[in-house]
Amino acid sequence: MRILVEDGERSIALTEEQMEHTLSDFYRCVAEEAGHEETEDTMYDCTRILVAPDVQDAIIQAYQRKWPDAPMNAIIIRLAISGPKVCDNLHCGEVVIQKGFISMRNDS
């Protein structure tokens, strides 16, 4: 694992095992690698995370393994709505979390 911090962004290098999750588990794994301990009030903002193309491929494969009968367009729609943004400039296995990716539910 490698974490670089620059201008409120953190770059994290994930292993193949860490990449191969459906979205909720993927976000939890990334937050954990960034040093965040999840609670029931933790929320993730999918507009504040960038991933390398191979990371998105691994997420798609996780959905295909979990729901082998799910049509590919259903998986792609799920990623379009609540998935991370793909950034072609990132290295294999790289994820960049931006300020605001992790927040806490405000119950007040």
Compose a concise summary of this entry.
The protein has 108 residues and is of the alpha+beta class.
Description:
The chain is of the alpha+beta class and 108 residues long. The chain is 37% helix and 22% strand. The chain has helices spanning 16-19, 23-33, 53-66, 72-82, and strands at residues 3-6, 9-13, 42-44, 49-51, 85-86, 94-97, 102-104. The protein has a five-stranded mixed sheet.
What are the key terms here?
alpha+beta; globular; 4 helices; 7 strands; 108 residues; five-stranded mixed sheet; two-stranded antiparallel sheet
The helix content is 25-40%
Q: In percent terms, what proportion of residues is strand? A: 15-25%
Element string (H = helix, E = strand): EEHHEEHHEEE
Helix/strand structural class: alpha+beta
Annotate the secondary structure layout.
Blueprint: E1 3-6, E2 9-13, H1 16-19, H2 23-33, E3 42-44, E4 49-51, H3 53-66, H4 72-82, E5 85-86, E6 94-97, E7 102-104
Parallel strand pairs: 4-5
Antiparallel strand pairs: 1-2, 2-6, 3-7, 4-6
